[in-house]
Amino acid sequence: MRTIKDVAVVSQEVLRGEVFGSVKIYNVDNPGKLENSAQRVLAITYPTQALQQALKAAAERFAGKRAQGTFVFAGGYGTGKSHSLLAIYHLLTSPDEGQKWLAKWGIDLEFPRGIRVVVSHLLDEDPDFAWEPVMRKLGRDDLLAKVRDHPSGAQIHALLEEGPLVIILDELESWYASIEDAARRERNLNFLQNLTEAAEDPQLGLVVFASLYGRNQELLGRLGRERIFLKDLGVAEDKVKVVLFRLFEEIHRDKARPVVDAYLQLYADLGEEAAIVPAPLDVYRNQMLDYYPLHPELVNVLFQTYSACKDWQNTRGIIYLLSGVLRRWYEERDLLLPADVDPNVSEVHDDLYQLGPQLLARALEDMKRTKHDRLAKDILATILLYSFVPEMAGAEESQVILGCLRPELQAVGGVNEIYRVLGKVEANAWYLWRLDGKYVIRTEENLPVSINARAARALQEHGPTDARLKIGQLLAEIAGGGANTFIYPLDQVPDSRQLKAVISTRYLDDEALREEFYRGLEWRNSLIFVRPKTVGDLAGNESFLLSAQRLLVCEQMEREVSKELLPQLKEFKQREESDLKGKLRGNYGEWMKPVGRGERIYFLPKDCNLNVAEILKGVKETYGAEVLDEAILTELEEAGGRGKRFDELRLAFLKLLGKPILVEPDALRDRVRHLCNQQGQIVMERGKILYHKDNPAPVNFAEDVILYAMRYGPALAKEVELEKREEEQGKVV
Questions:
Q1: Average pLDDT, the chain
Q2: Which one-letter DSSP state was computed for residue 69?
Q3: Lowest-confidence range among 221-230, 315-324, 547-556?
Q4: Which of 615, 646, 653, 715 has the fewest CB atoms within 10 Å, measured from its CB?
């Protein structure tokens, strides 16, 4: 693979890690500093359109062909204002070096020799009044002593007695903005107005150069918009050329063409439906060649980001950043993409830190979480570059692809691999958001994503035990029933006579019910077994387990998150719990009615909802009065003349499958009394006392009373029955 090193010659200052960026114009008089050397300064100066236009206008002014004598470079931090002023200083004060530089770039201009130039870095010198350093450096302390409110027009003219003069005022706006005293501000404004008015007179030979941000309208107004030549370097059209000029000594465009063509073919193969290039391919090809070895997407996002960050260094900041990126990759990459701005590289990290330390920290955290996917780092690095400016934050899907896609990636799936990893990153990066169709990294935690990622990790590292128990807890809450509701197999179901509702997470068939659940139980008929409608184990369902684990994560995070995030967290938890409960509820259910007797028990599923109260109501209706009466009489018929104690009868109903399930504790007692007192179908004996229809049993009859079917009852009972029949027959006769 052809690399950047094969195509371009990286500048020595980049290779040494000694990129000169921040010009300090006050060092022009310091022989040990680069700013003092005309040769070195002009060697790193690119003739931007703005600088060329300013130089041409200045030359016309010196030749008496232009009235404007004040030239202002405007723009934000790092746009090259001070650098442009420093270049002009050396072009004027070192004419031989200046002419070499002009000739090198094919600029047909010539400046008069012997021009006096005075430079004042106002922010560094911090005078009370802007005219003070100018007059002192010109040796005119005598004139300075005569100034009253501000230098008059005559006093400014006196500065020109020894010939043409150029005054350079750097950081004018920053210095002016620091003046708090209104009277002092006004005096300085009056001087600047007089100065620029004097510079309009071609006969005086006065030229003023200044730099400012262009935000202070009061200052611009007093300078006189109509009197000044103003160039905004923040919108200069050749900023990319400046960056390439500073990073590379030479770029062989002919060698770059095969590299660019390989990428263009890659984009073309995607077809129109998956078009990701923001311009026609032939236009984009020319742009890629012009910007090589910087991908147009990298250039665009960097300039958008640095231009929008008003307190950072614009073109200078981009040069710093890309010099570190180049040192890392120029021997390995054929083209620099947004993905190559890797914050894990220390130098790159330091520059990105200036743009947004918190955002950078969040991106690095997410890179660690997704480190097992090779492309995840590239995807997050690309998105990070689009995330620094809130007003335009976010990378479109096509920008993510352009930021990561290389020809060699085709061997592992190309665009499809990017889509695959992007999906995984979106599911696991805590600070990655998708807003209005764009991917953006934010300092706020994306709760749905982070909660899901924490939950998935917890399941992987610690297993599903806690999540299964959470599912059981939710099932118990849905079902109700209080202390007598148990979730099988998560709860230990007590083997007791008390009626219980057993909600199974598993679908058990007849054999499993008999062999796995009922075998070994004594009080088999004192419970109602409810199973899901679907085969499987709900507490083993991966989706349900993940959802339950998310709820556990929420419970943990409620003790940790900030007050600002707590309402969002609670809303998420409520929505998640409601959704999971709805899904669990939708899987139920069937309560299993035991049918048959002895070893021939099978189970008849009866539809039900997951509501213990409703289930009990349904069971009670299933085993109504007639069913209970029939079961009681069957037991007594089988007992014959031996009869059956009431407490033994109840034990049979509580223990033996196939008997009616006693939903209400007194249901059996009530039906026995009814069969004795109202129906006259049974006799109850306790010692010498017999209870029958003519001698009704009391409500609280004893537990040890013996029950008989009428035809097997004691003799007295038979006699009474016989007498009754005879009486009835006599009445008939």
A1: 90
A2: -
A3: 221-230
A4: 715
User: At how many degrees (to 10) do helices 465-479 and 447-462 cross?
Assistant: 120
DSSP state of 644: E
Instruction: Give ∠ CA 58-62-68 in degrees, rounded to 5.
Output: 55
Residue of 214, 123, 121 whose CA lies nearest to 175: 123
* Long-range interactions of 641-646: CB distance < 8 A, separation 24+: 641/708, 641/712, 643/685, 643/706, 643/707, 643/708, 643/712, 643/713, 644/706, 644/707, 645/703, 645/704, 645/705, 645/706, 645/707, 646/672, 646/684, 646/701, 646/702, 646/703, 646/704, 646/705, 646/706, 646/707
In 3D space, the residue among 193, 205, 220, 211 whose CA is nearest the CA of residue 66 turns out to be 205
CB 251 within 8 A of CB 8: yes
Q: Which band of pLDDT confidence, cut at 50, 70 and 90, is reported for residue 713?
A: confident
DSSP-assigned states of every residue in 150-213:
S--HHHHHHTTTTS-EEEEEETHHHHHHT---HHHHHHHHHHHHHHHHHTT-TTTTEEEEEEE-
Alpha-carbon distance of 563 to 555, in angstroms, equals: 15
**CA gap 150, 535 in Å, rounded:** 95
Decide: 472 and 415 in contact? Cβ < 8 Å.
Answer: no
Tokens of 313: 């260094």
DSSP label at residue 408: G
At 484 the three-state DSSP class reads helix
pLDDT at residue 311, as a whole number: 53
Is 271 in a helix, a strand, or coil?
coil
> Residue 500: helix, strand or coil by DSSP?
strand
Q: Which residues contact 446 (CB under 8 A, 6 or more apart)?
A: 429, 430, 431, 432, 433
442 three-class SS: coil
User: How far, in Å, are 12, 14, 197 from residue 38 at the CA level?
Assistant: 19, 21, 31
- Helix axes 415-428 and 447-462, enclosed angle (nearest 10): 90
Q: What is the pTM of this model?
A: 0.74
| Listed residue (527, 512, 502) closest to 610, CA to CA | 502
- Rounded distance, CA 131 to CA 158, Å? 13
CB 359 within 8 A of CB 32: no
d(Cα 710, Cα 637) in Å, to the nearest integer?
A: 9
Between CA 205 and CA 194 the distance in angstroms is 15
- CB-based contact 555:530 (threshold 8 Å): no
Task: Look at 8-12, 185-189, 717-721 and tell me which has the smallest mean pLDDT.
Answer: 717-721
Least confident of 42-56, 221-235, 283-297, 656-670: 221-235
pLDDT tens, residue by residue, 667-706: 999 999 999 999 999 999 998 899 999 999 999 999 999 9
Q: Cα separation of 92 and 517, whole Å?
A: 100
Q: b/e per residue, 544-577, with b = 16+ CB within 10 A? A: bbbbbbbbbbbeebeeebeeebeeebeebbeebb
- What contacts 475, CB < 8 A, 6 or more positions away? 487, 503, 505, 538, 584, 610
Roughly what angle, to the nearest 10 degrees, separates helices 239-247 and 296-308?
A: 110
Q: What's the pLDDT at 363?
A: 96
Give the residue-averaged pLDDT of 113-120: 91
Confidence band of 225 (pLDDT split at 50, 70, 90): low
DSSP classification of residue 78: T
How many angstroms separate the CA atoms of 85 and 78, rounded? 13
The span from the CA of 728 to the CA of 155, in Å, is 149
For residues 337 and 718, what is the distance between their CA atoms, to the nearest angstrom? 106
Neighbours of 3 (CB within 10 A): 16
Distances (CA, A) of 534 to 504, 514, 590, 605: 12, 19, 10, 12
Q: Distance between CA 50 and CA 55 in Å, rounded?
A: 9
Specify the pLDDT at position 733: 44
- Token readout for 518 is 């009922």
Query: Could you give the CA distance from residue 42 to residue 47 in angstroms, rounded to a whole number?
Result: 10
